[in-house]
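ok here's the first one, seq then struct tokens
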Amino acid sequence: MLKEYYADELRSAEKENREPEIPSLRSFRYWIKKLIPEAELIRKQTTAGDFERNRRGLRGAATDHTEVPGSCFELDATVLDVHIVSEFNRNHVLGRPTVYCVVDKESRMMVGLHVSMEYASWRAGRQALVNSFTSKKAYCARFGIEIEESEWPCHHIPQRLLCDRGEFICNKPEELAVPLIGASEHCSSLPCRVERYRRAPIPNSERKACP
């Protein structure tokens, strides 16, 4: 860069046997930071998708637009890093389960979930929503777990839903009784509360699954 923009000065200094009057690397970095916003520099060093997902500045908090619990539920799916095997033949791998989680954005409480062997789909997501709208006491009783309604008081319909722009971008979600908000392109991490549950470690289990 010095040879391109300070060629005349470099030649003159060489002829006159003196130090060239050119900016130092430290001075160059100072004026770069002073004249060009840091976000603009980062944007030029990466792709648009990577910038929106990982490098853009985040303002405010996740609960800025949620007034009370129940204002907004976040819904997302993830494939667990475990393999389900047959009860009768452990060499027969059935696949990896997909878990849908529904989290209340304001209170951070898990309000619904659904586990299936299907890939992420509107059908599976619908089951997770049904679970979030119904009594958890009855849900736990199906698995022999006794709880009181006050221990998991989550059986309400939210004002709106926030989800990824995946399987919910189709006609069927329009039949929902609540508004559906899709995360913008390259920003699937916007449902940040439910993303925290996705990062939780899965304990090792030797329990067998029926085919």
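and now the second one, same deal
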Amino acid sequence: MSNQVNLKSISSENPFWNIEVANKLIQRGKSRGFITEDEILYSIKDIEECVLEYEIFLDNLENLGIEIIETKESMLLSKKERNKKEELEKVPKKKTKKSLLEKAELISSDSIQMYLKEIGSVDLLTFQEEIALAKRKDKGERLAKQKLIEANLRLVVSIAKKFTGRKLSLLDLIQEGNVGLFRAVEKFDYRRGYKFSTYATWWIRQAITRALADQSRTIRIPVHMVETINKFQQKQRLLLQELGREPAPEEIAAEMEEDIKKIRHIIDISQDTVSIETSV
């Protein structure tokens, strides 16, 4: 109950947060043990405007043992759609001047201020523009996907800033959030009726919190493998951005010019390292 008190004290200061809606979702979750992703997205219309309150709401769910179930339809493409998308991804891209999207993947501590200035100059999208771009994106148009991402890069920064002071730098938080944004663009279905920015907030936050959770573990990795794993993860992120999907091990091997067996070994080390959860 104390968590709900916290929500009420914050909600009075934020017109975008509706404590009654949040409590109804909690009651629904308590009655059956879970709520769905769609129920949250439909009920809390402006998650991107109330990230702090949303965090407390999620804490409530976790403390009460209420599970959030991902909506299957929004997570999976049909086999036909997937095959079509893979064919479109095989079309070679022309080498051009680095776009803002590419800069989002390559930002460094030295260039972050310039990056923040650039993304701040990009116009936000109206709901109608989001739908139009989403329709074009579904037809395989790369430029539409790029515009959806670039118009929401500042959303990543605003969410990332709320997680500063933990185990990752702002730069790392932004990079992790960008990965979540890329996935949101890939999976967004405009026919469901909610704003893209609301849906993207869900994925951005998920990517950041997962990265923070990973950092909360003491991971024992052979010293000589650390640099290789870092390079692997960098190439993996770049390919995710370029392909709009998770790259296959073979694709990463080709990009790194490494043997596929070594890449699979790196993946195994990354997944199977001995981890110790830190106490909270």
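notes on #2: The chain has three domains: 2-69, 87-215, 216-280. Residues 1-11, 72-82, 91-97, 272-280 have pLDDT under 50 and may be disordered.
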